[in-house]
Amino acid sequence: MVLRRHDRRSLYGWAQRVEMFHTGDRLDRLHELTGGWPLLVDRAHRLHNELSDPDEVLRWLVGLRTDRAEARVFAEATGVYADPLLTTGYRALDDEFKDGSFDLENAVTAVAVRIEDEEEAHWIVTCLDALQVFDREDTQLRLEPLLRQCAALRDRL
User: Of 40, 151, 64, whose CA–CA distance to 99 is shortest?
Assistant: First the structure.
């Protein structure tokens, strides 16, 4: 079962339900810093309950992008590192496209070039899509920025 990442609208609904991060700027910042990942939204919720300070929670989330141990925990929790083929596929996409956009066909091609198996490349891209590592805008995809940044920190360990 895949947990769906929050988009801005669903995160707004969540914030209303839990009565946290009410202001538009805090909500925008929460979305930017969590990427909508349920694991991080839940952590922000718990931290807010502990600290009672939404700005302190946002500062902690900023630290995730520079703390190698936290970045590793998050990157591995997404499932990208659960299988060596998924890891290879993700790295192939990152090497090929960086933070640029691409379509599904180009994603499969980039992975197929790396592993030399187009059928397996389709499977890898489908799995990565199910893990929600892509941000979508119409037919264009982009590697989700927070995961991309945390994966880079993780791989430097």
Answer: 151
The pLDDT mean for the chain works out to 93
Q: What is the pTM of this model?
A: 0.89
| Partners of 134 in beta bridges | 143
Domains of the chain are: 8-64 (no CATH), 84-155 (1.10.10)
Give which of 36, 30, 43 is closest to 147, Cα–Cα.
36
Buried b (16+ CB within 10 A) or exposed e, 73-109: ebbeebbbbeeebbebbbebbbebbeeebbeeebbbb
Q: How many CA atoms lie within 13 A of 145 on its CB side?
A: 9
